[in-house]
Amino acid sequence: MKVQRILVLAGWLVNAPSALAARDQVVLADPASNKVTKNVAIIGAGSAGSSTAYFLRKFSQERDISLNITVYERDGHIGGRSTTVGVYDDEQNPVELGASIFVEVNHNLVDAAKEFNLSTSGIREFSTEGPVLGIWNGKNFVYMQYSGGSWWDTAKLFWKYGLAPLKTVRLMKATVGKFLKMYEEPYFPWKSLSQVAYVLGLTAATASTGEQFLDQNGIGKLFAQDIIQASTRVNYAQNLPLIHGLEAMVCMATDGAQAIEGGNWQIFSNMLAASHATVLLNRTVSKVERQEDASYIVSATNSESSVTFDQQPFDEVVLAGPYQYSRIDFDPQPRHLPDPIPYVQLHVTLFTSKHKLSPRAFNLSSDEVVPQVILTTLPTGEHHGSNREGVGSPGFFSISLLRPSMDTREGRDELEYLYKIFSPAPLNETFMANILGLPANRAISKADVSWMYRKVWNSYPYEYPRVTFEELQLDDGLWYTAGIESFISTMETSSLMGKNIARLMVDAWEG
Question: What residues does the Prenylcysteine lyase domain cover (predicted)?
Fold first, then answer.
């Protein structure tokens, strides 16, 4: 077992405009078969919505159930938070803006990538010069890892942290092993997330903060603060005294980290294609009205013109996104209303520059090389951070030098570098000048930063400790996927919730 694997942190760094076009043809039942056709509306074409459609089709075909699926998506692309943008505004040069990677224990995503023959790539180290990873506490680097994870890296790890790295790997595997049982009978499909989490012993992890959970399991505070907290910050912008223990362990499950070439959104585009759903992009669902026969009328508007033009009846409706952001008028109100969930507001900044990161900005000597990826933690004694959202002394959550980039616009042919930064607030010119080693008293020019793209996400919930989670059904025939967000917030768990709800629906139809 290679201990250094735990340092390939799971969120190494956090749609495409060329999304799947809406299908014109609806899958119709065979009139001669006398089957009753089920009509399902899915609101949202991210991981949860696409997976619900995909598994609904799969399970219904296994049971020979006739099915029509309509997917409404308010944006013009499929994938939700899994989305790419074009470097230099060139769609042929995509870079992930949202959900960046998945790992080998993400069974739904890994299986889908294989089924749809999508090309994957691992995390790339494009340079062997200097460290590939550094963990910065605002004052100095508390850890550095070099290319390939040498024996010397491992020796330094044990010298500084004792057996904590090994204990962390064991605890992570035991915890993730319990979670993986949620995919299997007799636990799958589960009607209550709270119940299955309790039965599998996962509430022991969700009931505690990451700090408490690690301490209870004998993992030293220094390793937790330096290494594990760097992972929770890059993945969820949260420190260990805030985030619950299960999510902290998920951050350390990093084996087989990979991404789809050209963008992870392709998994969900292919899922929708395989589901034979009618996909309606730029459609905002404005109203869901329950009828006396327990069916639902779904009203949608054009996201750009706000003109209501679509009203269709459905047997079942799946809300595949957070209730609090849906802005849907439910008439009457569902029997169960989800509690509002506080979401992290994360600023993602992509930019290109001819400058490498400045050693001076990180208290290194001028002849030292700045790590390719910089994760952050808090210095000893600074438990929650002294400024916005607990970011603390470092001022940001991560900086990644993603890859070299050739700027060919207007015949320039200049070699630059593509960077991504996660932060709790917009980056100002003083910050940019500092990390690029530029004078602080002059404005940053196009010659210094040739291209920039900013995005603000409600990226994931604050994963506060808890032992109960939202219901899967808001009412009869009205399903809800986002309840899993406070349990584990990933592309994979959203997909798992979609699969679980699809199975429950089909089982009920057959019964």
Answer: 147-510
* Strand, coil or helix: 394: coil
pLDDT in tens, 13-41: 333 333 333 333 333 444 445 678 999 99
Alpha-carbon span 29 to 14, nearest angstrom: 42
Cβ-based burial of 333 (10 A; exposed 0-12, middle 13-18, buried ≥19)? exposed
Mean per-residue pLDDT for 45-69? Answer: 97
Give 297-306's long-range contacts (Cβ < 8 A, gap of 24+): 298/41, 298/43, 298/70, 298/72, 300/72, 303/74, 303/75, 303/76
Ramachandran angles phi, psi of 200, nearest 5°: -85, 0
AA identity, residue 218: G
Q: Which tens digits make up the pLDDT trace of 451-486?
A: 999 999 999 999 999 999 999 999 999 999 999 999
- Pinpoint the alpha helices (H) of 252-379: 265-275
Let me know: does 235 contact 251? Beta carbons within 8 Å: yes
Classify 31-85+261-340+469-510 by CATH class. Answer: alpha beta
Q: Which two tokens stand for residue 37?
A: 């056709």
Write the CB contacts of 122 (distance below 8 Å, at least 6 apart in sequence).
Answer: 256, 257, 258
- Tell me the two tokens of residue 102: 């998945």
Q: Are 388 and 452 in contact (CB under 8 A)?
A: no
Torsion of CA 52, 484, 228, 81, to 10 degrees: 50
Residue 418 backbone zone (phi > 0: left; psi -120 to 50: alpha; other: beta): beta
pLDDT band at 127 (very low <50, low <70, confident <90, very high): low
> Where do runs of H (alpha helix) occur along 350-490?
429-436
Neighbours of 43 (CB within 10 A): 24
Where are the extended beta strands (E) located within 185-328? 258-260, 278-281, 283-290, 296-302, 308-314, 316-319
- Residue 114 has a pLDDT of 96
- Average pLDDT across the chain, whole number: 90
pLDDT in tens, 254-264: 999 999 999 99
Residues 254, 7: Cα–Cα separation, whole Å: 8
Query: For residue 184, which phi and psi values (nearest 5 degrees)?
Result: -120, 155
Cβ proximity of 362 and 139 under 8 Å = no
pTM of the model: 0.91
**Amino acid identity, residue 194?**
S
What residues pair up with 143 in beta bridges, in sequence order? 135
- For 354-463, strand residue ranges (E) read 373-376, 398-407, 414-423, 451-461
How confident is the model at residue 208, as a pLDDT?
A: 97
Query: What amino acid occupies position 212?
Result: Q
Torsion-angle region of residue 86: left (phi > 0), alpha (psi -120 to 50) or beta?
beta
Backbone angles phi, psi at 357, to 5 degrees: -65, 140
Question: Which residues lie closer than 8 Å to 177 by C-beta, 6 or more apart?
Answer: none
CB-CB neighbours of 5 under 10 Å:
15
State pLDDT tens for residues 299-350.
Answer: 999 877 767 667 889 999 999 999 999 999 999 999 999 999 899 999 999 9
